[in-house]
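Hello,

Following up on my earlier ticket. Below are the four sequence lines again, exactly as submitted.
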Amino acid sequence: MQAALALADAEGLEAVSLRKVAGALDAGPMRLYRYVDTKQELLELMVDSVYGELPEPTGSSWAEVLRSIANGIRDAALRHEWFADLLGGRPHFGPATLAHTERSLAALRAAGIDDVDTMMGVLEALDLYLIGAVRKEITQRRAERATGENEREWQHKTFPYMARMFATGHYPTLEEAVHDARHRSAAEVFELGLGYLLEGMSHHLKL
Amino acid sequence: MQAALALADAEGLEAVSLRKVAGALDAGPMRLYRYVDTKQELLELMVDSVYGELPEPTGSSWAEVLRSIANGIRDAALRHEWFADLLGGRPHFGPATLAHTERSLAALRAAGIDDVDTMMGVLEALDLYLIGAVRKEITQRRAERATGENEREWQHKTFPYMARMFATGHYPTLEEAVHDARHRSAAEVFELGLGYLLEGMSHHLKL
DNA sequence: GGCTCGTGCGATACAGTGTATCGAAAAATA
DNA sequence: TATTTTTCGATACACTGTATCGCACGAGCC
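Thanks for your patience. The regenerated structure is below:
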Protein backbone atom coordinates (compact mmCIF):
# COMPACT_ATOMS: atom_id res chain seq x y z
CA MET A 1 0.00 0.00 0.00
CA GLN A 2 2.59 2.53 1.05
CA ALA A 3 4.68 0.94 -1.65
CA ALA A 4 1.99 1.72 -4.21
CA LEU A 5 1.83 5.31 -2.99
CA ALA A 6 5.56 5.76 -3.21
CA LEU A 7 5.64 4.25 -6.66
CA ALA A 8 2.86 6.51 -7.92
CA ASP A 9 4.55 9.59 -6.45
CA ALA A 10 7.87 8.65 -7.96
CA GLU A 11 6.95 7.35 -11.38
CA GLY A 12 3.35 8.31 -11.99
CA LEU A 13 0.10 6.43 -11.90
CA GLU A 14 0.69 4.42 -15.04
CA ALA A 15 3.76 2.89 -13.41
CA VAL A 16 1.59 1.37 -10.70
CA SER A 17 1.20 -2.20 -11.85
CA LEU A 18 0.39 -5.07 -9.56
CA ARG A 19 3.68 -6.64 -10.54
CA LYS A 20 5.78 -3.61 -9.73
CA VAL A 21 4.07 -2.97 -6.43
CA ALA A 22 4.46 -6.60 -5.47
CA GLY A 23 8.02 -6.53 -6.74
CA ALA A 24 8.83 -3.61 -4.44
CA LEU A 25 7.84 -5.93 -1.62
CA ASP A 26 9.81 -8.90 -2.98
CA ALA A 27 6.67 -10.83 -3.66
CA GLY A 28 4.99 -12.58 -6.55
CA PRO A 29 2.39 -10.86 -8.71
CA MET A 30 -0.59 -12.43 -7.02
CA ARG A 31 0.52 -11.57 -3.54
CA LEU A 32 -1.54 -8.36 -3.53
CA TYR A 33 -4.76 -10.24 -4.10
CA ARG A 34 -4.66 -11.18 -0.46
CA TYR A 35 -5.41 -7.57 0.38
CA VAL A 36 -7.36 -6.44 -2.65
CA ASP A 37 -9.83 -8.02 -5.05
CA THR A 38 -8.99 -5.96 -8.08
CA LYS A 39 -6.65 -3.22 -9.17
CA GLN A 40 -9.45 -0.66 -8.92
CA GLU A 41 -9.66 -1.49 -5.27
CA LEU A 42 -5.96 -0.76 -4.83
CA LEU A 43 -6.44 2.61 -6.49
CA GLU A 44 -9.38 3.34 -4.23
CA LEU A 45 -7.24 2.54 -1.21
CA MET A 46 -4.65 4.96 -2.49
CA VAL A 47 -7.25 7.69 -2.90
CA ASP A 48 -8.57 7.04 0.56
CA SER A 49 -5.09 7.26 1.96
CA VAL A 50 -4.66 10.74 0.46
CA TYR A 51 -7.95 11.82 2.02
CA GLY A 52 -6.39 10.67 5.25
CA GLU A 53 -3.57 13.17 4.81
CA LEU A 54 -5.86 16.14 4.43
CA PRO A 55 -5.66 18.68 7.23
CA GLU A 56 -8.57 19.60 9.47
CA PRO A 57 -10.68 22.35 7.86
CA THR A 58 -10.11 25.66 9.60
CA GLY A 59 -11.81 29.04 9.62
CA SER A 60 -14.58 30.73 11.53
CA SER A 61 -16.79 31.66 8.58
CA TRP A 62 -18.23 29.09 6.23
CA ALA A 63 -16.36 30.73 3.36
CA GLU A 64 -13.04 30.33 5.15
CA VAL A 65 -13.91 26.72 5.86
CA LEU A 66 -14.65 26.01 2.22
CA ARG A 67 -11.46 27.81 1.19
CA SER A 68 -9.39 25.71 3.57
CA ILE A 69 -10.98 22.52 2.27
CA ALA A 70 -10.25 23.59 -1.28
CA ASN A 71 -6.64 24.40 -0.52
CA GLY A 72 -6.19 21.16 1.39
CA ILE A 73 -7.26 19.15 -1.63
CA ARG A 74 -5.29 21.27 -4.03
CA ASP A 75 -2.12 20.91 -1.96
CA ALA A 76 -2.60 17.17 -1.75
CA ALA A 77 -2.92 16.97 -5.52
CA LEU A 78 0.27 18.98 -5.93
CA ARG A 79 2.02 16.50 -3.65
CA HIS A 80 0.52 13.46 -5.36
CA GLU A 81 -0.24 14.37 -8.96
CA TRP A 82 -1.87 11.01 -9.64
CA PHE A 83 -4.54 11.97 -7.11
CA ALA A 84 -5.93 14.40 -9.67
CA ASP A 85 -6.32 11.60 -12.19
CA LEU A 86 -8.32 9.49 -9.79
CA LEU A 87 -10.45 12.28 -8.32
CA GLY A 88 -14.03 11.99 -9.42
CA GLY A 89 -13.35 8.84 -11.38
CA ARG A 90 -15.05 6.35 -9.09
CA PRO A 91 -17.27 6.76 -6.08
CA HIS A 92 -15.04 6.75 -3.01
CA PHE A 93 -16.40 5.51 0.30
CA GLY A 94 -13.23 4.71 2.19
CA PRO A 95 -13.03 5.45 5.92
CA ALA A 96 -10.66 8.39 5.50
CA THR A 97 -12.87 9.86 2.76
CA LEU A 98 -15.91 9.58 4.99
CA ALA A 99 -13.93 11.10 7.86
CA HIS A 100 -12.92 14.02 5.66
CA THR A 101 -16.55 14.62 4.71
CA GLU A 102 -17.52 14.37 8.35
CA ARG A 103 -14.92 16.97 9.36
CA SER A 104 -16.03 19.26 6.55
CA LEU A 105 -19.67 19.07 7.53
CA ALA A 106 -18.86 19.56 11.19
CA ALA A 107 -16.71 22.59 10.39
CA LEU A 108 -19.52 24.10 8.32
CA ARG A 109 -21.95 23.57 11.15
CA ALA A 110 -19.53 25.11 13.61
CA ALA A 111 -19.25 28.08 11.27
CA GLY A 112 -22.95 28.71 11.50
CA ILE A 113 -24.60 26.70 8.76
CA ASP A 114 -27.21 24.56 10.44
CA ASP A 115 -29.40 23.47 7.54
CA VAL A 116 -28.25 20.09 6.26
CA ASP A 117 -29.53 20.73 2.75
CA THR A 118 -27.44 23.88 2.55
CA MET A 119 -24.37 22.15 3.97
CA MET A 120 -24.58 19.34 1.47
CA GLY A 121 -25.31 21.72 -1.37
CA VAL A 122 -22.30 23.95 -0.92
CA LEU A 123 -20.04 20.98 -0.26
CA GLU A 124 -21.20 19.12 -3.35
CA ALA A 125 -20.88 22.19 -5.53
CA LEU A 126 -17.40 22.86 -4.20
CA ASP A 127 -16.50 19.24 -4.85
CA LEU A 128 -17.54 19.51 -8.49
CA TYR A 129 -15.38 22.58 -8.92
CA LEU A 130 -12.41 21.04 -7.14
CA ILE A 131 -12.43 17.90 -9.24
CA GLY A 132 -12.13 19.90 -12.42
CA ALA A 133 -9.85 22.64 -11.12
CA VAL A 134 -7.34 20.24 -9.63
CA ARG A 135 -7.45 18.00 -12.67
CA LYS A 136 -6.81 20.81 -15.09
CA GLU A 137 -4.08 22.40 -13.00
CA ILE A 138 -2.18 19.14 -12.77
CA THR A 139 -2.62 18.55 -16.48
CA GLN A 140 -1.22 21.97 -17.21
CA ARG A 141 1.64 21.47 -14.78
CA ARG A 142 2.57 18.24 -16.54
CA ALA A 143 2.37 19.90 -19.93
CA GLU A 144 4.62 22.73 -18.80
CA ARG A 145 7.11 20.31 -17.35
CA ALA A 146 7.13 18.31 -20.56
CA THR A 147 7.70 21.35 -22.75
CA GLY A 148 10.26 22.63 -20.26
CA GLU A 149 12.28 19.46 -20.53
CA ASN A 150 11.89 19.47 -24.25
CA GLU A 151 11.38 23.00 -25.45
CA ARG A 152 12.53 22.09 -28.93
CA GLU A 153 9.43 20.07 -29.54
CA TRP A 154 7.23 22.95 -28.40
CA GLN A 155 8.98 25.41 -30.65
CA HIS A 156 9.07 23.03 -33.59
CA LYS A 157 5.59 21.58 -33.32
CA THR A 158 3.06 23.34 -31.13
CA PHE A 159 4.01 26.94 -31.88
CA PRO A 160 4.02 26.65 -35.66
CA TYR A 161 0.83 24.60 -35.42
CA MET A 162 -0.93 27.39 -33.56
CA ALA A 163 0.51 29.95 -35.94
CA ARG A 164 -0.87 28.01 -38.89
CA MET A 165 -4.23 27.72 -37.21
CA PHE A 166 -4.39 31.44 -36.57
CA ALA A 167 -3.22 32.15 -40.10
CA THR A 168 -6.36 30.48 -41.43
CA GLY A 169 -8.31 33.43 -40.03
CA HIS A 170 -10.92 31.13 -38.54
CA TYR A 171 -10.18 32.11 -34.97
CA PRO A 172 -9.97 35.91 -34.83
CA THR A 173 -11.38 36.38 -31.34
CA LEU A 174 -9.30 33.56 -29.92
CA GLU A 175 -6.19 34.95 -31.54
CA GLU A 176 -6.86 38.35 -30.07
CA ALA A 177 -7.49 36.84 -26.65
CA VAL A 178 -4.30 34.80 -26.73
CA HIS A 179 -2.28 37.83 -27.73
CA ASP A 180 -3.87 40.53 -25.62
CA ALA A 181 -5.17 38.82 -22.49
CA ARG A 182 -2.73 38.63 -19.66
CA HIS A 183 -1.69 35.04 -19.02
CA ARG A 184 -3.06 33.80 -15.71
CA SER A 185 -1.17 31.08 -13.88
CA ALA A 186 -3.04 27.93 -12.94
CA ALA A 187 -3.03 29.03 -9.31
CA GLU A 188 -4.60 32.34 -10.27
CA VAL A 189 -7.34 30.68 -12.30
CA PHE A 190 -8.00 28.31 -9.41
CA GLU A 191 -8.42 31.26 -7.05
CA LEU A 192 -10.52 33.15 -9.56
CA GLY A 193 -13.03 30.35 -10.02
CA LEU A 194 -13.11 29.61 -6.31
CA GLY A 195 -13.82 33.28 -5.65
CA TYR A 196 -16.71 33.29 -8.12
CA LEU A 197 -18.15 30.16 -6.57
CA LEU A 198 -17.94 31.38 -2.98
CA GLU A 199 -19.29 34.79 -3.86
CA GLY A 200 -22.20 33.16 -5.64
CA MET A 201 -22.92 31.02 -2.60
CA SER A 202 -22.76 33.97 -0.28
CA HIS A 203 -25.34 35.93 -2.27
CA HIS A 204 -27.50 32.94 -2.94
CA LEU A 205 -27.59 31.87 0.69
CA LYS A 206 -27.88 35.41 1.99
CA LEU A 207 -25.30 34.67 4.65
CA MET B 1 -12.03 7.44 -36.42
CA GLN B 2 -15.79 7.22 -36.64
CA ALA B 3 -15.21 3.57 -35.88
CA ALA B 4 -13.40 4.50 -32.67
CA LEU B 5 -16.24 6.81 -31.70
CA ALA B 6 -18.84 4.17 -32.30
CA LEU B 7 -16.84 1.63 -30.36
CA ALA B 8 -16.41 3.96 -27.39
CA ASP B 9 -20.11 4.84 -27.39
CA ALA B 10 -21.13 1.22 -27.59
CA GLU B 11 -18.67 -0.51 -25.29
CA GLY B 12 -16.93 2.17 -23.30
CA LEU B 13 -13.54 3.79 -23.49
CA GLU B 14 -11.60 0.81 -22.21
CA ALA B 15 -12.85 -1.20 -25.18
CA VAL B 16 -11.13 1.17 -27.57
CA SER B 17 -7.96 -0.68 -28.43
CA LEU B 18 -5.98 -0.12 -31.58
CA ARG B 19 -6.62 -3.71 -32.54
CA LYS B 20 -10.37 -3.52 -32.13
CA VAL B 21 -10.68 -0.23 -33.96
CA ALA B 22 -8.54 -1.55 -36.78
CA GLY B 23 -10.49 -4.79 -36.69
CA ALA B 24 -13.74 -2.89 -37.19
CA LEU B 25 -12.20 -1.66 -40.42
CA ASP B 26 -10.92 -5.12 -41.47
CA ALA B 27 -7.32 -3.99 -41.09
CA GLY B 28 -4.20 -5.07 -39.27
CA PRO B 29 -3.25 -3.61 -35.90
CA MET B 30 -0.69 -1.18 -37.26
CA ARG B 31 -2.98 0.23 -39.88
CA LEU B 32 -4.02 3.08 -37.62
CA TYR B 33 -0.48 4.35 -37.29
CA ARG B 34 -0.89 5.81 -40.73
CA TYR B 35 -3.24 8.38 -39.25
CA VAL B 36 -2.01 8.64 -35.71
CA ASP B 37 1.35 8.49 -33.94
CA THR B 38 0.17 7.12 -30.65
CA LYS B 39 -3.00 6.02 -28.97
CA GLN B 40 -3.18 9.27 -27.03
CA GLU B 41 -3.43 11.05 -30.33
CA LEU B 42 -6.39 8.90 -31.32
CA LEU B 43 -8.11 9.80 -28.07
CA GLU B 44 -7.40 13.47 -28.70
CA LEU B 45 -8.97 13.17 -32.13
CA MET B 46 -12.03 11.64 -30.53
CA VAL B 47 -12.25 14.50 -28.04
CA ASP B 48 -11.90 17.03 -30.81
CA SER B 49 -14.62 15.33 -32.77
CA VAL B 50 -17.01 15.72 -29.83
CA TYR B 51 -16.16 19.42 -29.61
CA GLY B 52 -17.15 19.51 -33.23
CA GLU B 53 -20.64 18.28 -32.32
CA LEU B 54 -21.26 21.04 -29.81
CA PRO B 55 -24.00 23.48 -30.77
CA GLU B 56 -23.43 27.17 -31.29
CA PRO B 57 -23.67 29.05 -27.97
CA THR B 58 -26.91 30.99 -27.74
CA GLY B 59 -28.30 33.70 -25.52
CA SER B 60 -28.32 37.46 -25.40
CA SER B 61 -26.81 37.92 -21.94
CA TRP B 62 -23.38 36.61 -21.03
CA ALA B 63 -24.97 34.41 -18.36
CA GLU B 64 -27.25 32.77 -20.90
CA VAL B 65 -24.27 32.25 -23.17
CA LEU B 66 -22.30 30.52 -20.43
CA ARG B 67 -25.33 28.44 -19.52
CA SER B 68 -25.76 27.30 -23.09
CA ILE B 69 -22.08 26.38 -23.31
CA ALA B 70 -22.37 24.42 -20.09
CA ASN B 71 -25.42 22.55 -21.24
CA GLY B 72 -23.89 21.83 -24.59
CA ILE B 73 -20.92 20.13 -22.97
CA ARG B 74 -23.07 18.34 -20.45
CA ASP B 75 -25.36 16.97 -23.15
CA ALA B 76 -22.38 15.83 -25.18
CA ALA B 77 -21.03 13.96 -22.18
CA LEU B 78 -24.38 12.30 -21.64
CA ARG B 79 -24.30 11.18 -25.27
CA HIS B 80 -20.67 10.04 -25.10
CA GLU B 81 -19.89 9.05 -21.54
CA TRP B 82 -16.23 8.43 -22.32
CA PHE B 83 -15.95 12.14 -23.13
CA ALA B 84 -16.11 12.84 -19.41
CA ASP B 85 -13.16 10.55 -18.76
CA LEU B 86 -11.00 12.38 -21.26
CA LEU B 87 -12.11 15.91 -20.39
CA GLY B 88 -9.33 17.83 -18.70
CA GLY B 89 -6.95 14.93 -18.94
CA ARG B 90 -4.69 16.29 -21.66
CA PRO B 91 -4.39 19.68 -23.26
CA HIS B 92 -6.62 19.69 -26.33
CA PHE B 93 -5.78 21.91 -29.26
CA GLY B 94 -7.70 20.26 -32.08
CA PRO B 95 -9.36 22.41 -34.74
CA ALA B 96 -12.88 21.76 -33.49
CA THR B 97 -11.81 22.54 -29.92
CA LEU B 98 -10.31 25.81 -31.03
CA ALA B 99 -13.42 26.56 -33.06
CA HIS B 100 -15.58 25.93 -30.03
CA THR B 101 -13.48 28.32 -27.95
CA GLU B 102 -13.69 30.85 -30.76
CA ARG B 103 -17.46 30.61 -30.89
CA SER B 104 -17.67 30.91 -27.11
CA LEU B 105 -15.51 34.02 -27.02
CA ALA B 106 -17.37 35.59 -29.90
CA ALA B 107 -20.71 34.89 -28.24
CA LEU B 108 -19.49 36.49 -25.02
CA ARG B 109 -18.34 39.55 -26.91
CA ALA B 110 -21.66 39.75 -28.73
CA ALA B 111 -23.36 39.58 -25.34
CA GLY B 112 -21.53 42.67 -24.21
CA ILE B 113 -18.31 41.53 -22.59
CA ASP B 114 -15.57 43.42 -24.38
CA ASP B 115 -12.61 43.01 -22.04
CA VAL B 116 -10.51 40.04 -23.13
CA ASP B 117 -9.23 39.36 -19.61
CA THR B 118 -12.77 39.09 -18.35
CA MET B 119 -13.83 36.88 -21.25
CA MET B 120 -10.97 34.48 -20.68
CA GLY B 121 -11.48 34.54 -16.94
CA VAL B 122 -15.12 33.54 -16.95
CA LEU B 123 -14.57 30.97 -19.65
CA GLU B 124 -11.64 29.35 -17.85
CA ALA B 125 -13.50 29.30 -14.56
CA LEU B 126 -16.53 27.75 -16.22
CA ASP B 127 -14.29 25.18 -17.85
CA LEU B 128 -12.85 24.12 -14.51
CA TYR B 129 -16.32 23.65 -13.13
CA LEU B 130 -17.56 21.78 -16.17
CA ILE B 131 -14.69 19.31 -16.14
CA GLY B 132 -15.47 18.27 -12.60
CA ALA B 133 -19.24 18.49 -12.81
CA VAL B 134 -19.48 16.41 -15.95
CA ARG B 135 -16.97 13.90 -14.68
CA LYS B 136 -18.76 13.36 -11.42
CA GLU B 137 -22.20 13.19 -12.98
CA ILE B 138 -21.10 10.51 -15.41
CA THR B 139 -19.39 8.60 -12.63
CA GLN B 140 -22.57 8.68 -10.61
CA ARG B 141 -24.66 7.66 -13.60
CA ARG B 142 -22.42 4.67 -14.15
CA ALA B 143 -22.59 3.70 -10.50
CA GLU B 144 -26.37 3.90 -10.50
CA ARG B 145 -26.58 1.81 -13.62
CA ALA B 146 -24.26 -0.78 -12.12
CA THR B 147 -26.22 -1.07 -8.89
CA GLY B 148 -29.44 -1.03 -10.89
CA GLU B 149 -28.38 -4.02 -12.89
CA ASN B 150 -27.11 -5.73 -9.81
CA GLU B 151 -29.02 -4.48 -6.83
CA ARG B 152 -28.13 -7.56 -4.85
CA GLU B 153 -24.52 -6.48 -4.57
CA TRP B 154 -25.52 -3.03 -3.35
CA GLN B 155 -27.83 -4.47 -0.71
CA HIS B 156 -25.38 -7.12 0.37
CA LYS B 157 -22.21 -5.06 0.30
CA THR B 158 -22.47 -1.28 0.19
CA PHE B 159 -25.48 -0.82 2.41
CA PRO B 160 -24.24 -2.97 5.31
CA TYR B 161 -20.83 -1.39 4.89
CA MET B 162 -22.24 2.09 5.35
CA ALA B 163 -24.38 0.88 8.24
CA ARG B 164 -21.29 -0.53 9.94
CA MET B 165 -19.41 2.70 9.33
CA PHE B 166 -22.19 4.78 10.84
CA ALA B 167 -22.49 2.36 13.74
CA THR B 168 -18.95 3.22 14.79
CA GLY B 169 -20.25 6.65 15.73
CA HIS B 170 -17.34 8.35 14.02
CA TYR B 171 -19.49 10.13 11.46
CA PRO B 172 -22.42 11.69 13.32
CA THR B 173 -22.82 14.78 11.13
CA LEU B 174 -22.46 12.80 7.95
CA GLU B 175 -24.98 10.27 9.14
CA GLU B 176 -27.45 13.01 9.97
CA ALA B 177 -26.86 14.64 6.59
CA VAL B 178 -27.38 11.38 4.71
CA HIS B 179 -30.58 10.68 6.60
CA ASP B 180 -32.10 14.14 6.74
CA ALA B 181 -30.90 15.99 3.66
CA ARG B 182 -33.06 15.64 0.62
CA HIS B 183 -31.29 13.70 -2.07
CA ARG B 184 -30.41 15.91 -5.03
CA SER B 185 -30.12 14.35 -8.45
CA ALA B 186 -26.91 14.85 -10.37
CA ALA B 187 -28.70 17.25 -12.69
CA GLU B 188 -29.86 19.32 -9.74
CA VAL B 189 -26.38 19.51 -8.26
CA PHE B 190 -25.03 20.50 -11.67
CA GLU B 191 -27.54 23.34 -11.87
CA LEU B 192 -26.91 24.35 -8.29
CA GLY B 193 -23.17 24.74 -8.71
CA LEU B 194 -23.58 26.43 -12.07
CA GLY B 195 -25.99 28.88 -10.48
CA TYR B 196 -23.51 29.68 -7.70
CA LEU B 197 -20.75 30.20 -10.21
CA LEU B 198 -22.73 32.49 -12.51
CA GLU B 199 -24.13 34.48 -9.62
CA GLY B 200 -20.65 34.95 -8.28
CA MET B 201 -19.45 36.15 -11.65
CA SER B 202 -22.33 38.53 -12.00
CA HIS B 203 -21.61 40.21 -8.66
CA HIS B 204 -17.88 40.14 -9.11
CA LEU B 205 -18.01 41.67 -12.57
CA LYS B 206 -20.78 44.12 -11.67
CA LEU B 207 -22.59 43.37 -14.90
C1' DG C 1 1.65 -39.46 17.31
C1' DG C 2 0.63 -40.59 12.58
C1' DC C 3 -2.42 -40.10 8.80
C1' DT C 4 -5.86 -38.14 6.06
C1' DC C 5 -8.22 -34.40 4.29
C1' DG C 6 -9.50 -29.49 3.31
C1' DT C 7 -8.05 -25.10 2.60
C1' DG C 8 -5.57 -21.18 1.14
C1' DC C 9 -1.72 -19.54 -1.34
C1' DG C 10 1.05 -17.97 -5.14
C1' DA C 11 3.84 -19.52 -9.38
C1' DT C 12 2.48 -20.27 -13.84
C1' DA C 13 -0.44 -19.47 -17.76
C1' DC C 14 -3.55 -16.74 -20.66
C1' DA C 15 -5.62 -13.35 -23.24
C1' DG C 16 -5.06 -8.86 -23.96
C1' DT C 17 -2.62 -4.30 -24.58
C1' DG C 18 0.51 -0.49 -27.17
C1' DT C 19 4.18 -0.14 -30.13
C1' DA C 20 9.33 -1.21 -32.42
C1' DT C 21 11.14 -3.65 -35.95
C1' DC C 22 12.11 -4.90 -40.46
C1' DG C 23 11.32 -7.50 -44.82
C1' DA C 24 8.69 -6.80 -48.75
C1' DA C 25 6.03 -4.23 -51.92
C1' DA C 26 5.22 0.04 -54.21
C1' DA C 27 6.62 4.55 -55.88
C1' DA C 28 9.80 7.68 -57.61
C1' DT C 29 13.80 8.74 -59.94
C1' DA C 30 17.28 8.18 -63.54
C1' DT D 1 13.42 -0.34 -67.88
C1' DA D 2 16.70 -0.47 -63.90
C1' DT D 3 17.67 1.25 -59.56
C1' DT D 4 16.91 3.67 -55.59
C1' DT D 5 13.90 5.36 -52.14
C1' DT D 6 9.88 5.38 -49.51
C1' DT D 7 5.87 3.43 -47.54
C1' DC D 8 3.53 -0.01 -45.22
C1' DG D 9 1.74 -3.56 -42.22
C1' DA D 10 2.49 -8.57 -40.42
C1' DT D 11 5.13 -10.34 -36.87
C1' DA D 12 7.36 -9.99 -32.47
C1' DC D 13 8.11 -8.08 -27.84
C1' DA D 14 7.53 -6.56 -23.40
C1' DC D 15 4.08 -5.69 -20.39
C1' DT D 16 -0.52 -5.51 -18.33
C1' DG D 17 -4.54 -7.60 -14.99
C1' DT D 18 -6.28 -11.76 -13.50
C1' DA D 19 -8.06 -17.20 -13.70
C1' DT D 20 -6.40 -21.43 -12.76
C1' DC D 21 -4.82 -25.15 -10.26
C1' DG D 22 -0.96 -28.08 -8.18
C1' DC D 23 1.19 -27.98 -3.90
C1' DA D 24 2.37 -27.29 0.77
C1' DC D 25 0.72 -26.72 5.20
C1' DG D 26 -2.13 -27.09 9.27
C1' DA D 27 -6.38 -29.07 11.51
C1' DG D 28 -9.14 -33.14 12.77
C1' DC D 29 -9.67 -37.84 13.56
C1' DC D 30 -8.24 -42.70 14.56
